[in-house]
């Protein structure tokens, strides 16, 4: 059997950093929140740009509330879907599958 070099301490340090939240990527999360006009549009855009998916409970007119960030997210390749009182906002590379909602 051949020998190989495996540094378990380095692996453990990387795991510890990820568990402590020191991984600065910030992405890959599903963020639940309320879309009511109190959060700045730039904050939603930043969350999407870092790879997060937003599930926002819409309190008001979705078109008015999302007007400050929807176009920028779509233009960047993101996906927005209004479904049953929620706005789902996905970053580029994550598509929201609507196929099951299509009627025959």
How are the SSEs ordered, and which strands pair?
Blueprint: H1 8-19, E1 30-35, H2 41-49, E2 53-58, H3 62-66, H4 70-75, E3 79-83, E4 86-90
Write down how many β-strands occur, each being a DSSP E stretch of 2 or more residues.
Answer: 4
Terminal Cα separation, in Å? 59 Å
| Physical arrangement of strands within the biggest beta sheet | 1-2-4-3
Major β-sheet, in short? 4 strands, mixed
Percent range for β-strand residues: 15-25%
Instruction: Give the overall average pLDDT.
Output: 85
Rg over CA atoms = 19 Å
Order of helices and strands: HEHEHHEE
Q: Count every helix, treating DSSP H or I runs of 4 or more residues as helices.
A: 4
What coarse outline follows from CA principal-axis ratios? globular
Task: Tell me what you see in this structure.
With 104 residues, this protein is an alpha+beta fold. Helix content is 31%, strand content 21%. The chain has four helices and four strands. The chain has helices at 8-19, 41-49, 62-66, 70-75, and strands at residues 30-35, 53-58, 79-83, 86-90. It has a four-stranded mixed β-sheet. The mean pLDDT is 85.
Give a concise summary:
The protein has 104 residues and is of the alpha+beta class.
Key attributes of the depicted protein:
single chain, 104 residues, alpha+beta, four-stranded mixed sheet, 4 strands, 21% strand, globular
């Amino acid at each position: 059997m051949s020998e190989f070099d495996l540094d378990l301490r380095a692996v453990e340090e990387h795991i510890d950093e990820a568990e402590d939240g020191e991984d600065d990527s910030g992405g890959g999360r599903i963020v639940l929140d309320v879309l009511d006009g109190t959060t700045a549009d730039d904050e939603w855009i930043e969350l999407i740009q870092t790879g997060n998916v937003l599930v926002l409970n819409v309190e008001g007119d979705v078109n008015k509330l999302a007007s400050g960030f929807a176009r920028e997210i779509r233009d960047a390749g993101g996906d927005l879907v209004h479904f049953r009182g929620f706005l789902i906002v996905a970053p580029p590379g994550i598509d929201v599958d609507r196929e099951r909602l299509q009627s025959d």
